[in-house]
Amino acid sequence: MRGTAADEWALRRLRPLLCTARRSNGVTVEKTLATTLQVAYFREELRMRVYRRVLADVLATLAEAGVPTMLVGGAALGGTVYGDWALRHSHDIDLLVLEDHLSRGAQALAAIGFTPGDRSIGPGQRDAILKHVSDLPVALHSRPFPVPYANALVSAMWARGESVMLDGVEASVLSPADNLLHVCGRAAILARRGSPFWVCDAWQIIEKHPDLDWELLVEGAWRCHLSLLLYATLRYLASELEAPIPPSVVRRLATAVDPLGREGALRAAQMVPKGSLPNLFRLTRRWEDRARLLKWWLLPSPSYLRAVHELRPSASIPLYYLNRPFRYGARRVSAAITKAMPTRVTWRSRFG
């Protein structure tokens, strides 16, 4: 789903949270809306009973198979910082798994009836997606971020992980600072598939952890080349929603921008629904900034290409430059075709 339909779908997923917020803040709304929100909450509560049973089976199965896991995304947040599973809609189960355990993890889940999803494990792959009989996807990721350059702290994130109990099953989750970095970083990187939940997630993490290690967050953003993207997301939370974020943190992120992080931010800007080159030009007022944008679009730095596309041989970089305009055109055509295609019925649309 794209455009208005996608926005409507995203807002539907927020209804249980709005229902609880309305009650806790004593907000009066018309009866029809109040009923709609209440029904959405009960529906999500029922849906989460199935989700939690599947999650418990997945965690227990992988633990028995000797596969270390780190629960991330909606499953980790709904079971910890929200305090009520029904408030955090999750259409899949996301787990970090060490790369050399991916194959064993996929085999363990296949042994209890999971089937290969969109990306099954194969030579050189760093992710595996399997599906439960209900169509609920389980994604095993070896890296927390979808762009290679942002994964400089994988080992440190594993070392800082915290143990929690979810429905009687032990699970590991990211530390609060790493969790906030993960939520905001992924939201900015995956802007095209952005969800309004990142705002709620970030707010809940900050509220749940008033002693959050902001120094660790700033350092992590720098080492992952995400300072500019974290600056944009945290500045929005602080200025528009008055989130209790220290002003010094926002200022430090604004000045801690490295060349690779700047190019990564341009990539993220191009990923938003209206991030086409003509639109970015219209939003850019100064000609020198437009020149920088055009230069990046035509000739991104070799270090950026190696970091994002993992182009190792230097000889392949000139070929990539020549092919870049054609790749851009192909993406635009593919996006137009995808927009025109009907939506498939999945676990998300059946139960979400």
Q: Would you write up a description of this structure?
A:
By secondary structure, the chain is of the alpha+beta class. β4 and β5 form a beta hairpin. Helices cover 58% and strands 9% of the residues. The strands form 2 sheets. Strands 1-2-5-4-3 form a 5-stranded mixed beta sheet. It has helices spanning 3-13, 15-24, 31-64, 73-78, 102-110, 154-159, 176-189, 197-208, 214-223, 227-240, 247-255, 259-271, 277-283, 287-298, 302-309, 316-340, 347-351, and strands at 69-72, 93-97, 115-116, 127-131, 137-141, 162-166, 169-173. It has one domain. It is globular and about 55 Å long. α2 packs across α3 (31-64) and α7 (176-189) packs across α10 (227-240). The protein contains 17 helices and 7 strands.
Write the layout of secondary structure elements.
Blueprint: H1 3-13, H2 15-24, H3 31-64, E1 69-72, H4 73-78, E2 93-97, H5 102-110, E3 115-116, E4 127-131, E5 137-141, H6 154-159, E6 162-166, E7 169-173, H7 176-189, H8 197-208, H9 214-223, H10 227-240, H11 247-255, H12 259-271, H13 277-283, H14 287-298, H15 302-309, H16 316-340, H17 347-351
Parallel strand pairs: 2-5
Antiparallel strand pairs: 1-2, 3-4, 4-5, 6-7
Features:
five-stranded mixed β-sheet, disordered C terminus, alpha+beta, 58% helix, 9% strand, 352 residues, two-stranded antiparallel sheet
How large is the share of residues in beta strands? 5-15%
Sequence of secondary-structure elements: HHHEHEHEEEHEEHHHHHHHHHHH
Count the strands? Answer: 7
User: Structural class given helices, strands, pairing?
Assistant: alpha+beta
Tally of structural domains: 1
What proportion of the residues is helical, as a percent range?
Answer: 55-70%
Taking the sheet with the most strands, its summary is:
5 strands, mixed
Radius of gyration: 21 Å
What number is the mean pLDDT?
86
The N- to C-terminal Cα distance equals 14 Å
Strand order of the largest sheet: 1-2-5-4-3
Q: Identify the overall geometry.
A: globular
Number of helices: 17
Quaternary state of the chains: single chain
**Low-confidence runs:** 348-352
